[in-house]
């Protein structure tokens, strides 16, 4: 039995029950694929269900404002996915009358949809024989064929895509693509794969040569950057605080946060003397206390954030910029914020 048929047979016997596997609706498939980019199924499933419940159709998602979408996405990370999701929903609803593109080539025109996502939607919804290549697929193919070309190199991307095209099952592209992804997630796992009961073990080069733990090969990651975030949590008359929206193209674009001072290190003296703090206080009397002694470490893909929260109590409103707003404590729960701040808000501004 050839490679693709073995995988499909395994998949039909072992696949997990997922709500997006019970439909060919391209809106549902697209939504699930965007949510599951760089996200485990267990983490992504509740978000998928929330989005389907809140926005049953692409028209509902298109009509939402960005803050609503970001709030629902809160905690899932990689927030550009949510913004691209919203942009594409408006394009499909307003420009395509709610009808999703039906080919791989046209799906690529949607913002936030790349090769992998377009392949998944085209094969599952429209039976187009285009192979998916994601982390699971790289792992399965590199181990089975004993390929040591780095998967994050230009040559590797091309080599694995060509191999995936060659292996594609043209008779059953939907099940084949889902099969190889599921096989990588459940059977050919990154650590401790189930080689002893693997249906491909008799012809797996990685297993035969003892390369399982060293494949796939990946070029060394870029150096992790350390950043020090000092959040000013204003407590005005014991009732109000200040939030501002992040601008620019850095992390958490469009999300809200407390006034922020980024520094070379976490140090209270440098915070109090900082121009941002002095301009906001503007001569008013205040009390400042550190919420907790040790900074909170928040890890992103290429950055480690060391965050501290400083509680700044005062009896009158400080000077604010046009991008900042004074809100009641209870309102903080309604704004889309990074999960780092969301956890703090849940603890500090109990309602």
Task: Describe what is shown at a glance.
The chain has 351 residues and is α+β, with helices and mostly antiparallel strands.
Question: What best-fitting shape do the alpha-carbon axes yield?
Answer: elongated
Radius of gyration: 24 Å
Helical content class: 40-55%
Average per-residue pLDDT, rounded, comes to 92
Total strand segments = 8
Count of runs of 4 or more consecutive helical residues: 15
State the separation between the terminal residues, measured CA to CA. Answer: 61 Å
Helix and strand sequence: HHHHHHHHHHHHEEEEHHEEEEH
Strand content: 5-15%
Structural class: alpha+beta
- Largest sheet composition: 5 strands, mixed
- Low-confidence runs of at least 5 consecutive residues: none
Question: Which descriptors would you attach to this protein?
Answer:
351 residues, 42% helix
Verbal overview:
With 351 residues, the chain is of the alpha+beta class. The protein is built from 15 helices and 8 strands. It has helices at residues 3-14, 26-35, 41-54, 58-63, 66-73, 80-95, 104-107, 115-126, 135-145, 154-167, 173-186, 205-208, 268-272, 275-281, 339-348, and strands at 225-236, 240-245, 256-257, 260-263, 287-290, 296-299, 303-314, 324-328. Strands 1, 4, 5, 6 and 7 form a 5-stranded mixed β-sheet that branches. It has a 3-stranded antiparallel β-sheet with strand order 3-2-8, with no helix packed on it. It is elongated, with a radius of gyration of 24 Å. The termini are far apart.
């Amino acid at each position: 039995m050839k490679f693709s048929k073995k995988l499909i047979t395994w998949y039909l016997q072992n696949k997990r029950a997922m709500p997006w596997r019970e439909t060919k609706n391209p809106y549902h498939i697209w939504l699930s694929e965007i949510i599951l980019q760089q996200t485990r199924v267990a983490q992504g499933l509740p978000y998928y269900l929330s989005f389907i419940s809140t926005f049953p159709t692409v028209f509902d998602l298109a009509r939402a404002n960005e803050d609503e979408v970001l709030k629902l996405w809160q905690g899932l990370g990689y927030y550009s996915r949510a913004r691209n999701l919203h942009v594409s929903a408006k394009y499909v609803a307003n420009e395509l009358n709610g009808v999703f593109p039906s080919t791989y080539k046209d799906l690529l025109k949607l913002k936030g949809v790349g090769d992998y996502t377009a392949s998944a939607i085209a094969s599952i919804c429209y039976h187009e024989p285009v192979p998916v290549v994601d982390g699971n697929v790289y792992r399965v193919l590199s181990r089975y064929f004993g390929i040591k070309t780095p998967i994050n190199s230009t040559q590797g991307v091309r080599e694995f895509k060509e191999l995936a095209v060659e292996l594609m099952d043209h008779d059953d592209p939907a099940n084949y693509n889902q099969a190889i992804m599921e096989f990588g997630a459940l059977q050919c796992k990154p650590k401790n794969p189930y080689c002893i009961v693997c249906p491909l073990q008799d012809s797996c080069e990685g297993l035969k040569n003892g390369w399982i733990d060293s494949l796939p090969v990946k070029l060394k990651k870029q150096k992790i950057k350390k950043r020090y975030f000092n959040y000013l949590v204003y407590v005005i008359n014991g009732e109000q605080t200040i939030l501002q929206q992040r601008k620019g193209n850095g992390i958490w674009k469009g999300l809200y946060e407390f006034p922020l001072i980024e520094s070379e290190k976490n140090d209270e003296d440098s915070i109090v003397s900082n121009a941002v703090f002095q301009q906001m206080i503007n001569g008013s009397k205040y009390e400042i206390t550190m919420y907790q002694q040790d900074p909170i470490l928040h890890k992103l893909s290429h950055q480690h954030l060391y965050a501290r929260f400083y509680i700044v109590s005062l009896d009158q409103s400080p000077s604010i910029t046009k991008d900042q707003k004074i809100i009641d404590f209870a309102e903080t729960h309604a704004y889309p914020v990074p999960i780092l701040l969301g956890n703090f808000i849940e603890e500090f501004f109990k309602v």
